[in-house]
């Protein structure tokens, strides 16, 4: 079920940021920023650390765009904390500095419609939330399929461009490329 165009479900949950555990983490604390909120299945697995490190490697790019990256899985904060202490070369996520939420009771994954009920873990859901808390982009991958962080940045850029210029971003649009007015004439001019 698509959540695009709807307010992002809010919640209070435990989260780990670097080496600290926070009890009352809320997405709504980031109203006024773009939020890239992503779910991954489990700590100490295989595709998951590649994604968490990929987001960390591009974190400065997200920050330049006033975008907060937030990860979430059904593991406990203690599991997140232990994984954050493990070096990258051993499959850990040491060096990841953005918040990682603990959804131990699975209510957050359920509210975002990404919970794989039979396994009790989340699909690789990703949500781009605008500065007012509305979901503007949603992507859900099956468990073995890792995401493209560059594509997430492209979507943040497209949303910012649309908000600033009122034009729409055609297929494969990138910053600096031609956009169009959302009219028949705009489409005709785009294809010229």
The CATH H-level superfamily of the largest domain is Glutaredoxin
Strand residue percentage: 15-25%
Order of adjacent strands in the largest pleated sheet: 2-1-5-4-3-8-9
Query: Per CATH, which architecture of the largest domain?
Result: 3-Layer(aba) Sandwich
Based on CA atoms alone, the radius of gyration comes out at 17 Å
Count of spatially separate domains: 2
General shape: elongated
CATH topology of the largest domain: Glutaredoxin
What is the CATH C level class of the largest domain, in words?
Alpha Beta
Termini, distance in Å? 37 Å
Order of helices and strands: EEEHHEHEHEEEEHH
Number of strands: 9
The helix fraction, in percent, is 25-40%
Mean pLDDT: 97
Number of helices: 6
Poorly predicted tracts of residues = none
What does this structure look like?
The protein has 192 residues and is of the alpha+beta class. The protein has helices spanning 47-57, 59-64, 77-84, 107-111, 149-165, 184-191; strands at 13-17, 20-25, 34-39, 67-73, 100-102, 115-116, 121-122, 124-129, 135-141. It folds into 2 domains: 13-146, Glutaredoxin; 148-192, no CATH class. The chain has 6 helices and 9 strands; from the N terminus they run E-E-E-H-H-E-H-E-H-E-E-E-E-H-H. The strands form 2 sheets. Strands 2-1-5-4-3-8-9 form a 7-stranded mixed beta sheet. It is elongated. The mean pLDDT is 97.
Keywords:
23% strand, 29% helix, Glutaredoxin, 192 residues, 7-stranded mixed β-sheet, two-stranded antiparallel ribbon, alpha+beta, 6 helices
Structure, briefly:
By secondary structure, this protein is an alpha+beta fold.
């Amino acid at each position: 079920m698509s959540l695009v165009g709807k307010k992002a479900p809010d919640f209070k949950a435990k989260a780990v940021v670097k080496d600290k555990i926070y009890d009352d983490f809320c997405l709504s604390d980031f109203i006024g920023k773009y939020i890239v909120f992503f779910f991954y299945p489990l700590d100490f697995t295989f595709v998951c650390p590649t994604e968490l490190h990929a987001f960390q490697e591009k974190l400065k790019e997200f920050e330049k765009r006033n975008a907060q990256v937030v990860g979430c899985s059904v593991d406990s904060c203690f599991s997140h904390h232990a994984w954050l202490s493990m070096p990258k070369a051993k499959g850990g996520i040491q060096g990841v500095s953005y918040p990682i939420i603990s959804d131990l009771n699975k209510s957050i994954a359920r509210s975002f419609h990404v919970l794989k009920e039979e396994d009790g873990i989340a699909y690789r859901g990703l949500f781009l939330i605008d500065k007012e808390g509305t979901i503007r982009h949603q992507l859900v991958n099956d468990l073995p399929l890792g995401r493209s962080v560059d594509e997430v940045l492209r979507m943040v850029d497209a949303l910012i461009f649309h908000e600033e210029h009122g034009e729409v971003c055609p297929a494969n649009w990138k910053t600096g490329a031609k956009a169009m007015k959302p009219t028949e004439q705009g489409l005709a001019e785009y294809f010229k």
